[in-house]
Amino acid sequence: MRIVFFGTPAFAVPSLEALARAGHTIAGVVTQPDRPRGRGQHVHPPEVKVAALALGAAVLQPARLKTPEFAAELAALGADLGVVAAYGRILPANILATPRLGMINVHASLLPRWRGAAPVHRAILAGDTITGVTIMRVVEALDAGPMFDREDTTIGPDETSQTLEQRLSAIGANLLVRTISRLGSESATEEPQDEALVTHASRLEKRESPVNWTEPAIAIHNKIRGLQPWPLASAWLGGKRVLLRRSQALPNESHTVAPGTILRADSPGIDVATGTGAVRLIELQLEGRPPVSAAAFLNGHPLRAGDRFDTAPDVS
Q1: Which are the contacts of 87, defined by CB distance < 8 A and separation ≥ 6?
Q2: How many CB atoms lie within 10 A of CB 123?
Q3: Where would a tag sit more exposed on the chain, N or C end, judged by fewer CB atoms within 10 A?
Q4: What is the spatial distance between Cα 219 and Cα 275, in angstroms, rounded to a whole number?
Q5: How confident is the model at residue 316 (pLDDT cuts 50, 70, 90)?
Q6: How far apart are CA 265 and CA 279, in angstroms?
Q7: Entry pTM
Q8: pLDDT higher than 60, residue 314
């Protein structure tokens, strides 16, 4: 088929590359404009743009979708099908109707659970043990279109949103190629979503970062692994903000101290009392510094049992 591809971050790259390997013609790639990123705020292209240029595909980076100029550029591509994978914008009705066969989406959840911008992170934050990828038809309502196919996978107990998203991107790429093959042979079927089972995956916000040590150990562990690579779970120690990168839940750890109190601090990790059980901090990062192991952190910041994390200020 002749395909126009809409995508922006690294999650979308395996899907784009899989389409090219499967022999489809990439008529054009639509991605968001280059933007400043990182501490130096240098302008960087989206990961999809880099991949598209490597494939020799034409790249469109409209600042706005609702313009006659973009509608004309899209129509000129003569695409049979549109594919969307984490593009990051809602597509208007005239854009959805431009490809001959409409548009389909690679969504990183088992719809109708976790419709929205952050399905991978929200699944981990909620303590889900199963997630997956859904290929669905794109409609004007957010992630509400009928489904062509789904594939599930287990979420590891210590898996982060970053590593899970990488796995799901590969699963989604394979599922996408299979779905398009069925569309081409006219054997694809569409199943409506059950609206009674819908949950929403809202965008992550910086105000979600601070850890509340009164929560159970499992909830805090899920927060540490679910808020990666941004905004990252955080705590305050000696007046300094510490980002919590890797942890282990110790739900059966018995203690009688206040939540936030350090129980042990040695090379395996820094064990911190929580509302129920404890959390072992394995990798930490002082804001503005590189991540380090607990052992390396303790070399520069000695801690002992009885020390406590500070109350977090408002970072919203």
Answers
A1: 6, 7, 8, 12, 30, 31, 32
A2: 27
A3: C
A4: 10
A5: very low
A6: 12
A7: 0.94
A8: no
Residue where a domain terminates, one of 201, 236, 269: 201
CA distance 69 to 75: 10
> Is the per-residue pLDDT at 300 higher than 60?
yes
Task: Scan for tokens 């990790």, then name that residue.
Answer: 269
SS (H, E, C) 271-295: EEECCECEEEEEEEEECCCCCEEHH
| Residue 312 binned pLDDT confidence (cut-offs 50, 70, 90) | low
What single letter denotes the amino acid at residue 107?
H
How many of the other CB atoms lie within 10 Å of CB of 141?
Answer: 9
Q: Residues 235, 188: one domain?
A: no
Residue 36 and residue 45: Cα distance in Å, rounded? 9
Task: Give the C-alpha separation, 69 to 92, whole Å.
Answer: 14
Which domain, by its residues, includes 268? 206-300
pLDDT band with cut points at 50, 70 and 90 for residue 49: very high
Strand pairing class (278-286; 292-293): antiparallel
Q: Is the pLDDT of residue 41 over 80?
A: no
- pLDDT for residue 37: 79
